[in-house]
Amino acid sequence: RASAPLLAVAGLNAWYGHSHILQGVSLEVRAGEIVTLIGRNGAGKTTTLKSIMGLVPRREGRVTFAGEEILGLPAHVRFHRGLAYVPEERRIVPGLTVEENLRLGILAARTRAREAARIEAIAETFPRLKQRLRQEAVTMSGGEQQMLAIARALMAEPRMVLLDEPSEGIMPILVEEMFAQFAAMKRAGTTILLVEQNVDLALDISDRVYVMDQGAIVHHDTAAALNADPVIQDRYCSV
Ligand code: ATP
């Protein structure tokens, strides 16, 4: 079933208390794709990622991953099935070095036996981290810590990563490096669903894009088509 999507979200609704935040979100990500979700602040992008990961208390609809329904499963079970999530807040552990933080990414994973090999592979993908493996992680710059959060998620060799605004608050030069790394992750076979305000850079590395507004998907297209459509970009993507 090569053509079946790796992740399929259909009619997803989510609530915080009495606020009905997601109102029928549907999207698909095929294996090997980078798909980006864009939209204004408060459109519901973070809530979509959290709902896919099982981190929003009340949710309804269908979320299938690798052909299996996962909507009712707890987040850690989704993780064991190969779905990783890097939240906007990076959760780097103070007092631990870069390498020790990386090891945390594999503690619970089935790939534990390959820990050393994973650290080596990740050091090749993230040269900035390779130079800093013995440095206390929280002494790194914000951008470097964001790379560490992403690298830590990759330690368990997930099939798919959900990335929430990785470029937020990061120097432009590091942002470009980070986006080049997303392209490298894709070449290495990782599927990516990205939430990003940095639309230009995101479009450059993405296959397809979904545009969100007020808790619903209002538009979707290939990144190339959206790149050539300033009207949609102006209407839905200005912060
Ligand atoms: P941003 O780019 O600002 O993060 P977003 O598109 O990711 O925006 P969400 O964070 O998903 O948007 O927020 C969608 C709506 O849900 C907003 O109106 C927000 O205020 C609300 N919301 C988010 N988290 C909570 C929460 N824990 N409790 C109540 N309401 C929430």
Q: Order of SSEs, N→C? A: EEEHEEHEHHHHEHEHEEHH
C-alpha geometry: globular
- Please tell me how large the radius of gyration is: 17 Å
* Low-confidence sequence ranges: none
Ligands in the structure?
adenosine-5'-triphosphate
Let me know the largest β-sheet: 6 strands, mixed
Strand segment count: 10
Strand content: 25-35%
Number of helices: 10
The helical percent reads 25-40%
Compute the average pLDDT. Answer: 90
Kindly name the structural category. Answer: alpha/beta
Adjacency order of strands in the biggest sheet: 6-7-8-3-9-10
Give the end-to-end Cα distance, rounded to a whole number of Å: 39 Å
Organism: Methylobacterium isbiliense
InterPro entries: AAA+_ATPase (IPR003593), ABC_transporter-like_ATP-bd (IPR003439), ABC_transporter-like_CS (IPR017871), BCAA_Transport_ATP-bd_LivF (IPR052156), P-loop_NTPase (IPR027417)
Pfam families: ABC_tran
Keywords: Amino-acid transport, ATP-binding, Nucleotide-binding, Transport
